[in-house]
Amino acid sequence: MGKYFVQNFGCRATQADGAALEAMLAARGLEPAGERAAADLVVLNTCTVTASADEDARHAIRRVHRENPAARILVTGCSAQRAPQDLAALPGVEWVVGNSHKTQIPDIVHLDSQLATSVPCHGAIHVGDVFAQREFLSAPVEDAAGDRTRPNLKIQDGCNNRCSFCVIPFVRGPSRSAPAEQVIGQVRSLARRYREIVLSGINLGRWGREPGSAMRLAGLLRRLLSETEVERLRLSSVEPMDLSDELLGLMAESPRIAKHVHAPLQTGSDRILRRMHRKYRPRHYADRILKARALMGHAAIGADVMVGFPGESGSDFEENRRFIEGLPFTYLHVFTYSERPGTPAAAEPDSVPMPLRKERNRALRELAAAKNRAFRESMIGRTLSAVTLHEPLTALTDNYLKVELSHPREPNLLLDLRIGSLTESGLREAP
Hints:
431 residues; alpha/beta; Rossmann fold; 3 domains; six-stranded parallel β-sheet; 20% strand; globular
């Protein structure tokens, strides 16, 4: 088995896992293949957050087997942890390896005899208790979706929450943090090559919350600012209850932390939040968002929002819409509820018809588009800090807006850009 190809599906955490797998396979003497068709081993690192994510994985398996029938296919990731038998039954699949055994993939593909007798498995399936997982698998992602100027560094994995709609804790395991010294070393190394680094996790705000740990995310950020030369750190999604005054204050006071807050909301309906088993009420969420806006007047403020949760009535949705309308969001990620087998929400009898889910999704997307346009209009005439992207004539501002450059620049530069006008979905630099 000479060449490997790793294809990742889903979130930043999966991308980070895939980067670590590539490094481990290379360390065992395998060579990267430029494309799936040229690989002897194809690793499909799957997502299972929605039904369509599962279907994407199955479609990819069939396509790999059709295009490269000689390839040995290994399916891993969240879908592999959740439904290994289903995936193992697909033609061409030689191994299914759950997140519980992902760190052992190099041994599994080399058919290590000691591993074969010690790992509980059934045939080609290597899946165990993910809640016993304590290892932390991660490597910097330096080319995610073609973005080669803003590496993503996963510093936290797993989740201890039990939201009624979410399968992720059952496929990712308990919350666990990368050691502070490891994070500092990785950021120090990346900062020699990149202007901006994105810190991510399944539940990023829980970094450092393990028993016996005294440092929290804000403390880690202070160490990164004092012990590395990183020019800009950007936080990915942080749950609202983890947006402490200390963390928001540090984000506001440091010019080296991007003015960008992304806090999952799911819904502004108090009744539906309770049914979702979320750990905050709308008033708590609003307090954190308004605090962020008061401290950072021009920050990007985004949220994940779900429509069509079981039992969501017209009045629940309207309560949600009004709540969103009243807060200073600059963008939204709007999701239509997708039933996940085995979750409490999937067993609820009062499902919302799919056409109504799609109609509510459209309504919130229109609201988000209007808020985003108003935010972009307020940036005209201002000078914003931005990092130039690998994408030609494009930069990304501190407050998460794409800017069309007036003339070409090299990628991976940190610049001050004066904003002249709007584009269809972003901004344009003044000539």
